[in-house]
Recover the amino acids of this structure.
């Protein structure tokens, strides 16, 4: 009885903690189309200023890939009022940190400062938007940086090209078929005018959202935003293409040889819906169920119990237009890739034919709650979430309400979605193999 009472009290306390995490925010538009989101949290003297641009690898010309990621680097080169090489020095000298990242759907820049440097953060991002210096020196420098990144993370990294090989088979029409790193050949052949044109099209206020989160005064912050961003001219309306993929009609068999590995891998990739669809949330839970941690079904079965695999994995990559669900493993000893595939399929069929247990289902709910709390545990995390939910989901308040979607998912839905998407006709089967040795 005492144990039960403690469990109830803990659940109530945890529930209250979840409610206490509600993120308040205010959003509005400037006349030039820049969307602004403000979140005030005076609990610590820290502030994050961030700008997300609605441009990613999917917006590139198929003959000029890699531009979005390239700009992630290029726009730190300097501006009309910031000398080349000085950006990071300015940030660190004022007690701040900064970074940027690119996906196939968006590009994101941010700084975190002591709150008395809010004005500096706003000035830096307004400079990036209004006065970027795009010249041949910067382009040549960043081409070398991107080339080295490509070599380090893709070409010379074990299993570094699995995603590339999977996606060229999952997508035939959509730009998701190429990776954000793009083609080094395309970047090498691009002209300075190509880069200037890309900047002119996509780096405009009406294609961006500015988020300021942390220890701020709302009225003062609005005035600074107007002063720094208000004068920036609105850009032309952006024309975006839409792409509809045909059914896969699989399974599609693919093979790739990687000179950087000695152990083969099997990867099975399924094409899934847009991240805004409810099914995408269910697939998140399916991924957690199958391989999130050592207590997951596939890990316990293939690694712990049967000792057939060194590693198993499953993850749901939700994106703006389509998603992908990839599951696979690395075999041990004489275990074949076909053996691994058979075992994984058996576990998927179990989900498709019977409901997962109540205990497993509660674990999924707990992990969703924990992830929700962690994502909003810092002002930088909150800034990122606010920008992402506004730009890619068209619903900023998902920062508060998304957890309700996970809470409302049922065991029946998990079974239904597994039957809907995790089927052989909707998948690519990639044998990722060591490079073949030539016979003497």
């Amino acid at each position: 009885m005492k144990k039960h009472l403690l469990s109830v009290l803990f659940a109530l306390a945890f529930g209250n903690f979840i409610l206490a995490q509600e993120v308040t925010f205010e959003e509005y538009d400037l006349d030039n189309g820049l969307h602004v989101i403000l979140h005030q949290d005076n609990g610590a003297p820290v502030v994050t200023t961030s700008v997300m641009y609605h441009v990613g690898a999917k917006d590139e010309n198929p003959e000029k890939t890699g531009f979005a990621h390239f700009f992630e680097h290029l726009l730190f080169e300097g501006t009309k009022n910031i000398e080349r090489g000085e950006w990071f020095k300015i940030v660190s000298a004022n007690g701040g940190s900064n970074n940027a990242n690119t996906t196939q759907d968006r590009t994101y820049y941010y700084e975190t400062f002591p709150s008395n440097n809010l004005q500096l953060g706003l000035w830096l991002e307004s400079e990036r938007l209004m006065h970027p210096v795009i010249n041949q020196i910067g382009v040549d420098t960043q081409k070398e940086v991107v080339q080295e990144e490509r070599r380090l993370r893709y070409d010379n990294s074990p299993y570094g090209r699995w995603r590339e090989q999977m996606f060229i088979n999952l997508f035939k029409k959509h730009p998701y078929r190429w990776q954000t790193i793009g083609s080094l050949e395309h970047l090498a052949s691009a002209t300075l005018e190509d880069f200037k044109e890309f900047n002119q099209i996509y780096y405009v206020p009406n294609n961006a959202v500015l988020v300021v989160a942390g220890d701020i005064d709302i009225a003062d912050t609005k005035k600074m935003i107007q002063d720094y961003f208000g004068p920036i001219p609105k850009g032309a309306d952006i024309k975006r293409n839409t792409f509809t993929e045909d059914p896969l009609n699989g399974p599609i068999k693919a093979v790739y040889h990687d000179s950087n590995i000695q152990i083969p891998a099997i990867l099975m990739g399924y094409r899934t819906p847009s991240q805004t669809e409810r099914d995408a949330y269910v697939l998140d839970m399916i991924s957690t169920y199958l391989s999130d941690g050592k207590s997951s079904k596939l890990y316990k079965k293939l690694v712990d119990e049967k000792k057939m695999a060194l590693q198993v994995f499953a993850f749901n990559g939700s994106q703006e237009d389509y998603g992908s669900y990839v599951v696979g493993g690395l075999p041990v000893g004489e275990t074949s890739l076909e053996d691994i595939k058979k075992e994984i399929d058996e576990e998927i069929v179990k989900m498709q034919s019977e409901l997962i247990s109540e205990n497993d289902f509660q674990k999924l709910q707990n992990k969703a709650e924990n992830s929700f709390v962690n994502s909003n545990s810092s002002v930088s995390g909150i800034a990122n979430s606010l920008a992402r939910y506004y730009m890619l989901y068209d619903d900023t308040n998902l920062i508060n309400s998304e957890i309700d979607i996970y809470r409302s998912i049922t065991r029946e839905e998990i079974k239904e979605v597994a039957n809907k998407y995790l089927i052989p006709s909707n998948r690519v089967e990639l044998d990722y193999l060591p490079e073949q040795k030539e016979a003497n």
About this structure: The first strand starts at residue 26 and ends at 29. The chain is about 45% helix and 20% strand. The CA atoms of residues 79 and 208 lie 19 Å apart.
